[in-house]
Amino acid sequence: MLRIADCIVSEHDLSQVLLAGFFCLFAAWTALNLLERVTATRGWSRVCWLVAAGTVAGCGVWATHFIAMLGQSSLLPMSYDPGLTVLSAVLAMLILGAGFALATGAFTRNARPVLGGAVVGSGVVVMHYVGIAALIVPARLSWQPDLVAVSVVLAVSLAPAGLTVLRRTEGVKGRLWAAALICAGVVGLHFAGMAALELHPDPSIPAPRAANGGPLVYAVSLVAGLVLLAGLVSARIDRSFAARSLDEARRLRALVEATSEGILVHRDGRVVDANEAMAALAGIEVAGLVGRPVAALFAKESAVTLRRCMAGADRTYGEGELLSAAGAIPVELTGRQIGHEGLMAGVVGVRDLRERRKAEARIRHLAHHDALTGLANRPLFHDRLEQALAWSRRTGEGGALICVDLDRFKDVNDALGHAAGDTLLCAVAERLQASLRETDTVARLGGDEFAIVQRGGDQPAAATALASRLNAALSAGFAIGGDHVVASASIGIAFYPGDSDDLTCLFRHADIALYRAKNEGGATHRVFETAMDEQLRQRQTVVADLRRALAEGDLRLAYMPLADAHTGTVTGFEALMRWHHPERGPIPPGEFIPLAEESGLIVALGEWALATACAEAARWPGHLRVSVNLSPVQFRHGDLVALVADTLLRTGLPAERLELEVTEGVLIREPERAVHTLKRLKTLGVSIALDDFGTGYSSLGYLQTFAFDKIKIDQSFVRRSHEPGSAAIIRAVIGLSKGLALPVVAEGVETESQRAGLASEGCDEVQGYLIGRPQPIESFAALLRAGSGPSAAAGGARLHGLVLED
């Protein structure tokens, strides 16, 4: 390889080397364009294009060889034998043309690009070494066999590779790669062969008259360039004409066929011509249709419509049945008169109506059925229920409305994707349908909501038995995409006419029962009771009043102090939401907070509480912190991190003085998303405390998942700290926290003995009625102003000797 590189750099004019390479690449590109015309034509045109491709390729290879030879630096005078030089060009054209014929299958049944490429490579080898033989120089010639072998291998391997790429890759990209490979083979052959040649000066050999390299290069380049350009232009022009002719042929064929509809041209009641669409529709060849009576192709019931279409002077329409080999086909018929072969003739257009009929049936089905599951949809179900209610009014026969809602269906969508959720809905629909009688109707009302109208039966036993069968059928599990999914449902039942004989009211009662079943954990059924309606109304009233209280500013925050269990230092306050209803009085947080979470109102309540607490805390001494509780719902709605950051910015409270308390409920659903949110909150500088620690089933796992800043022991353990079991749990939690270097807060401290015991175990902070009851912050005004020393809290609660440090 070093010898070849040295030959190119040291023994040749690089400008002429580049010129030779350009001609080689241009020639290969032009020849391949001509080959495209070979594969696209037949007969003598193919032969002419093949000759043109061989001529252009041979001329280009020959020009590459002699331009490179003329660019070789030599101290010896050189000339060329005219006969052998011409012979080298002729041999290149003939052998390359033969190789192209094999590669394109011009004269054989199959194209053989590898064999044809090998012939092309051999032609390049023959041209090169015959051209070398034409060299006249006062020296003896010898060869390095290894380099000669390399030159031959390059030619006979890269040319087949190029023609194989051309065969397998269409378009400009394929021709470019093929041309580059062939060019690489030609150039590689030439310089490997020249590197293999050694000249040994011999005074006994007369010196020839040296050829003038410059003019010869220009002459060879000019002739070769003209040949190549002529070939390329010819290919382009022919391709353009061929494309235009093909377009015209296609246009004429489109006019002949006229339409995708069947066409029958008739005269005197018999077919005189037809198109292929008509032949395909009837199942008879066009030749078999010609001469047949038109009426024989159609059913007798279509005779009146057919006669009207055949006699129509203008376009007429009608429907009939075509008697095809596949049976009777519903068709639409049109008719008019035209001139045909110099005489008037009639045309009957025949349009297949099978797909339209299917589409119409499908549209009718979709109008009354769910597109995903195939069950009845809401309008059809309402119609069936109205029929059942009307029958009940006439006959007194009762029945049941059963509403079914899948439990935790969103979890399936989140875990496995919506496609899996759709598959589950279809499978559930099949099992629901299989559990019913023929007289019952099941519908999908939307999402994962289903409804069943059960007509007759021994009620209420029939409906409750069906509900039990449904949940048993669902709990058997489903195979969804390789996963085993166990489903359950909450089911609500209302009876007609007992609960109501009005559709809207009956649905409402069934939904109320369904709501009760879902609130009780799901996987069960509940029958509507009048008390349920009243309870639901009360809950809805409370939610409405709570929304009004938030809008009108009737909510308040109470603050419960936290103190150091050892030094008695008040370290901060926990903000707790309070609501004093104008009519019902104080409503406990345990009553209105769950309702706010169910209704989504907790998001707005949480924003208000966070903003109010931060604004208040910003006015306290700098060492006091404020704790605010977060609901799991806030993690699933909106950007909680942006809310906290904006609140801190607006209120001016330093982030390190804000502590956010979360329960395990935050991490139970979508734990990855919750942990990501908590980590983003910590980057703001706020502290995160795990509230009610020990009451959940996976608290230790959560401590490993996320690095909390504080743990709060639930008050249920503190209140029973005198019991050995609770004391052991407290001791274990404090020991665990010390091992994790986490501060511990004990909630519900009500006695001095509880505080002392917790302090002795190493608890860091305490909170409870011993320290102070939840009060408006104004109740602690004196304590905040004093800055230190014992102080009594308003309302009788006191700080039990603990001091507020400067």
Describe the structure.
The longest helix is centred in the first third of the chain and has 45 residues. The strands form six sheets. This protein has an eight-stranded mixed beta barrel with strand order 17-18-20-21-22-23-24-25, surrounded by five helices. A five-stranded antiparallel sheet has the order 6-5-9-8-7. Strands 11-12-10-15-16 form a five-stranded mixed sheet, with helices on both faces. It has four domains: 239 residues, no CATH class; 97 residues, Beta-Lactamase (2-Layer Sandwich), CATH 3.30.450.20; 160 residues, 2-Layer Sandwich (Alpha-Beta Plaits), CATH 3.30.70.270; 215 residues, Alpha-Beta Barrel (TIM Barrel), CATH 3.20.20.450. Strand 7 and strand 8 form a beta hairpin. With 806 residues, it is of the alpha/beta class. It has 29 helices and 25 strands.
Radius of gyration over C-alpha positions, nearest whole angstrom: 47 Å
**Major sheet attributes:** 8 strands, mixed, barrel
Structural class: alpha/beta
Q: How many strands in all?
A: 25
Mean pLDDT: 80
Question: Separation of termini?
Answer: 87 Å
How would you write the strand order of the largest sheet?
Answer: 17-18-20-21-22-23-24-25
β-strand amount: 15-25%
